[in-house]
Structures are given as C-alpha cells and as structure tokens.
Amino acid sequence: METVKISTDFIKLDALLKFSGMAETGGDAKTIVQDGLVSVNGEVCTQRGRKIRPGDVVKCGGAEITVEAG
C-alpha cells in the first residue's frame, strides 16, 4: 500500500491517479475511471472528478493508495 500526502483539502480522482503513477496521462486516468477499474473506499467509482480527501483509500489494478493530509 502506498501513501500519498496532499496539502489541500482534496485532490480530484483523475489527478491522484496521474500523481501517483497509476495512470501515465490524464487521458489514461479518464479511461481507467470510466471503465470502472477504480474503487474508492471499497466502491467502484466512475466519476473522474470525484474529490478524494485524507483518509480515503483508492484501489486500481491491484495497487492501493491511502491519502493523508500533508
């Protein structure tokens, strides 16, 4: 499990996927999310603009990210 620290109140899901390296580009992030391959806190999420806040857990393709306040 990887931890990503953010210094803002939230980060959008597609931006988190790019920032963490789960997606190479914004276009890849969009496709991954729209195809239903990402879950947030155990639920499939198809909203690429979803606000991810500290404490949220994002899973994609076997990788897992926990977001913390930084």
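(the above was protein one; protein two follows)
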Amino acid sequence: MSDSSNLKLYYSTREVAQQLQVHEHTLRFWEKEFPMLKPEKSSGGSRKYTKQDVELVRLIHHLVKEQGLTIKAARERLKTCKKQVVDHQVIVDKLKGIRAELMEIKLKLDELHSH
C-alpha cells in the first residue's frame, strides 16, 4: 500500500479483494466462516473494512491460500495462536520481498552479461 492509502479509515470489499487478489465473494464467505471478521456496513449495506479488518483478512488469506489450511483449521489457529500466525506471516512477507529484490538483481545482472 502507498503512504496515501495508509491515511484511509475504511476500504471497500473491492479494494480489499484487489489487494489480496481474491474474489469479493471470497471475502463475504470468509466473513461468515470467521466470526472475528466483522467489517462495518454502511446504511446501504456496503462493507467498510478497517485496517484491522484488512490485517485479519491478510492472516486468513495466508492460512487458507498460502499454507493450504482448511477453513476450520485456519479458524482454530487464529483462535489459539494468533500471535504465532502474525509472526509467521511477517516472516513470509519479508522473505517474499527479499526474493523479489533478488530476482530484480538477477535480471539486471543477466542484462549486463548479455551486452
């Protein structure tokens, strides 16, 4: 997220879905399956996700999509050891960032060697 998006108080379902590259209906499904995920709703019924909601959705995404846990197992993991899940996700995110940087360096080196 860019610095300006850090100033936002609420995110729409569409914005959260785009950030995580999932379908909007997936977010609505997770809302039903994870009782701790309760985005506010506007008077028109649109969901309004806070930063805390988005972070919880990121954790759910990490457990279900990246670690391959079932919904039930992910729900239990969040209930029993949320801090460990958060710590693990932070490490995985950092490693992904390092990998992306290394891939970029490799591409630049490959370009230099090809000239």
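Reviewer note on protein two: The beta strands are 40-41, 47-48.
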